[in-house]
Design brief:
The protein is about 35% helix and about 30% strand. It has about 280 residues and is α+β, with helices and mostly antiparallel strands.
Length: about 280
């Protein structure tokens, strides 16, 4: 069985507060985009993992293997799986690639083992694997709260082109959150962004782009600022870093602008991908 593991971007990311357990309460607008890894899982006598990227772990540190162990423990089955991952989403990019892979594994095991898990059971299971996994399991434009486990899906009616650009260096999520200064933190208009996306208000989307982690991550990876400045210069209507970085995205209504910027940014040595927001009518959901 094969499944697409879709990346995400954050159109709004507000770090509300640091929790006593060391995590952070968040309010975010997250959307899945049409850019994905492909995971194949086949029932087998033992669990194995093959990946088309040599730098990725094929042991318990791999999110797919972790998802298998969580599912086995929670639901009491002993079936093992041969897994093959065709990896396209870069790591340390703010695109939830590892979380998307784990989510795809959870969805497939739910079907293969005929578990018929409810939405809340899928989310609780996903939360054990990682903070972004609940969103990736659902794959719907959503208001995401708490540490990532509280999801309010909504219908996005605002259409625009997206260009993803990632510098060579990635950003450690732990380092980004560890560098936050709550005295100077920006708190973007998350609710306003949700309303704008629901109502087709493109200008409202552009004006509400915001990410509490961006300043910290720019200090960690200076190339993030360079990418932002280049996309601004191309004429994108809005430019923002996704998640903890280092991917930056630009949004526009112009396919021509995306094509031209894509070619030039790729020639400059960046990872580049043209994409759009997708919804639950897409394959793989």
């Amino acid at each position: 069985m094969k499944e697409r593991a879709f990346a995400k971007i954050n159109l709004c990311l507000d770090v509300v507060q640091r929790r006593e357990d060391g995590y952070h309460d968040l309010r975010m607008i997250m959307v899945p985009v049409d850019f994905y890894d492909v995971l194949e899982m086949t029932p087998a006598d033992e669990t194995t993992m093959s990946v088309n990227r040599s730098y990725l772990p094929v042991n318990d540190k791999n999110t797919v293997i972790k998802a298998i162990h969580v599912m086995q423990e929670r639901y009491g089955f002993h079936q093992e799986f041969a897994c093959n991952l065709q990896k396209h989403i870069p790591t340390q990019a703010g695109l939830a690639g590892g979380s998307a892979d784990a989510a795809a594994a959870i969805r497939m095991m739910n079907r293969m083992m005929r578990l018929n898990l409810s939405r809340s059971e899928l989310i609780e299971t996903a939360k054990e694997v990682g903070a972004d996994v609940p969103f990736c399991v659902m794959n719907r434009p959503s208001l995401v709260e708490g540490i990532g486990e509280l999801l309010t899906p909504f219908t996005c009616t605002t259409e625009f082109e997206i260009l993803l650009v990632k510098p060579r260096m990635g950003v450690s999520t732990k380092a980004a959150f560890g560098g936050l200064n709550f005295d100077t933190l920006i708190h973007p208009d998350v609710d306003g962004m949700k309303t704008a996306l629901e109502s087709g208000d493109y200008e409202g989307v552009v004006s509400r782009l915001g990410n509490s982690l961006e300043d910290v991550s720019v200090n960690l990876v200076k190339a993030i600022r360079d990418v932002k400045e280049e996309l601004d210069a191309f004429g994108f209507d809005g430019v923002l870093m996704s998640g903890s970085g280092s991917t930056v995205f630009g949004i526009t209504k112009s396919p021509r602008l995306v094509r031209e910027a894509s070619d030039l940014m790729r020639a400059n040595g960046y990872f580049v991908r043209r994409t759009k927001i997708i919804d639950s009518s897409q394959p793989g959901f």
